[in-house]
Structures are given as structure tokens and as C-alpha cells.
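S2.1 Query sequence (DNA replication licensing factor MCM5)
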Amino acid sequence: QTISIAKAGITTVLNSRTSVLAAANPPSGRYDDLKTTQDNIDLQTTILSRFDLIFIVKDIRMYSQDKLIASHIIKVHASADAASDNIKTSKESNWLKRYLQYCRTECHPRLSDSAATLLQNNYVKIRQDMRQQANETGEAAAIPITVRQLEAIIRLSESLAKMRLSHVATEENVQEALRLFNVSTMDAAKSGINQHMNLTPEMAQAETQIKRRLGIGN
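Output C-alpha cells follow.
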């Protein structure tokens, strides 16, 4: 993997030796469904376009879900010092590391012809849908769909094939990669309000007063 940089007159290619997992909070502290995705994420498109998958994780207040999360966190802390758990985790971790290392060194899959055609058709359709959405709302998408996203789907497809130690990425791998892309980046790009509203000064003032009295999500 490599990263291409063309900034301030400097053009170079750097080796990428790791994956990046980043997390961030919205500017208001909580995700506001009444705002656009761009207002909630508040990051430059040049940064967002470099991530393969973008997930929006909302803290929904549900009794059953909160109970499961609390139970899981308590169990993690309660068993943190258990020697048997540490030994078991260590063995499983070493096995997984060896398997991943073997996949990386021995397996280098490439897209089959049918998988490449399927991916090409879906990429063109996604671009058309995003262009239509931009024309209807009058605003550009918060997360642009460019060739970088196409390369991301290709990487996901090849990674899924590599996990099975297959030297060919099939249509099934492409479909699963597209599913992951749709439930993450595409869902994030389409979330929030879908239509542009022209507020009068009176409406804007009323909206401000309502927001002062009601919390986000109420």
C-alpha cells in the first residue's frame, strides 16, 4: 500500500505500513439528525475521501441495549486479572497473527473479469445516484464518491478473498464489499436532512429558541 502526496509543490509516494482507525465526535457533542452529514462530521472532504469505510455510530438510549453494554464492560473489568483468560487470549492472538501473516505473504488475489465488470457497473450507478441527490438538494455530498472509493472497494474485495486464501476475488467478494460500503460510507453520506430548507429570519429565530429549550434527539 502507498500514499500519494501532492501538496505545496511536493509530489511524492510514501509507503503505508499500517491501517488507520480513527474516531471523532460531532461539533455539538451528539449527532444531530436535523443537520446535514457535512455539519455533523465537520471535516474536509479531502480527509474523508481517504478512508475506506466511514461509520456513523449513534448513542441511542435503549434500556435493553444499555444493559447489554453495561454488562459487557463490567465483565471485561472483572476478568481483566484472570490468569486463565490471559493465557487463552494469548494463544488465540498468536494463532490469528500467524494466520494473517501467512495470508499476507502467500496470497495476492486479483479481481476476476466478471467481478471487475460487476464492480464497474455498481461504481457508475453509485456516482449517478450521488449526482442526482446533489441536484435535488442543491448541495454537494459530505462524503464525495471518487476513484478513491472505487479503490477502497477493490481493496475490500481482495481482502475478503485473501481471508479465504483465494488467489481470485470473485463476484461474491465484490458483492460483500459493496454491502459493507453501502452500510457504512454511503449510509453516512445520505444521513441527516435530505432537502435544503430556506428559512426566513423569523423561522431561523424560532428554530434557535427551540434548540435552546430542547436537547439534541428530543
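The CA atoms of residues 98 and 134 lie 46 Å apart. The helical segments are 37-41, 45-48, 63-78, 83-106, 113-137, 147-163, 171-190, 201-213.
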